[in-house]
Structure of Translocase of chloroplast:
Amino acid sequence: MGSTKEWSGINQFPVATQTALHGLLGKVRQQNVDSMTVLVLGKGGVGKSSTVNSIIGERVAAVSAFQSETLRPLFVSRSRAGFTLNIIDTPGLIEGGWVNDQALEIIKRFLMDKTIDVVLYVDRLDGYRVDSLDKQVIRAITRSFGPQIWKLCLLVLTHAQLPPPDGASYDDYVQQRSEGLLAAIRHEAGFKKTDPDIPYALVENSGRCSTNAGGEKILPNGTVWVPNLVGRLVQVVTNEHPSLLVDKKLIEGPNANNRGKLWIPLVLLAQYFLVVRPIRKAIENDIQEETRRKPAWETFVDDYNSLNEINASRRGR
Ligand code: GDP
Ligand code: MG
């Protein structure tokens, strides 16, 4: 892959966070894992790009308070102490109130031949319910990558510094929100009760996040969230579940070669109604009218031949 940029963003974290991160990297290296690739997915505006920047410790991904204008995923790679972290930031999957299938298709093609170790599914902690749009997004991801992708999932809840509404306790609030989203994911992925829990992590990307005495960013429940988040990533990458290789088969679907064949009877039927029958009619008309000009059926025959050529090339593939 050539030389990867040094993960120098670690240096800007407080010393205690740097120590914790180096400890985690040492831990994965011990398990013979020397790289991981993290795919970041979710609706627009939930804090995907901000979270990428927070982990890398650099402004690598453009953050926008408004709808992002790009459909293109972003691949960021950083190395430190013999370990390479790859993160793929993606555009939001919703547009005009619907799942943007084109965006998912672009993401899939962008990922060709890459192996995904962790999927960060990002949403806001302060979303107040799981609605049909959330389910649509989860369903679309399942459809695109297969239900197995959720075995690599780490749910990330941003805006985690916000106080819970109506004086509820912070921990109850977090539990409710995470359980709601995880239940939807498990349902859409067809998880059984015996399937393992999907982990989650809390994130506060705001520069105004509270800090502890060591200058590390902390949440209302005291969690030092940067090392906690990276720890969860490491947990997923070292779980027994295999990573996901995005290959041709996954991109085009298991029945890609057969899918075209389904159309053949339909094409033949259309051919009959659009070409053969009109030709017959035209011939009948010609006979009736006994015209001298180029008979209409000749142009129909041209059309018929070109349609046949199209079909032949379609069948040939
Ligand atoms: P994306 O569309 O999912 O990539 O979301 P962005 O990272 O571009 O963030 C959208 C907006 O939310 C920006 O204005 C960010 O500054 C803001 N934002 C993202 N994460 C957080 C967070 O954890 N806390 C707060 N307060 N704002 C956030
Ligand atoms: Mg973004």
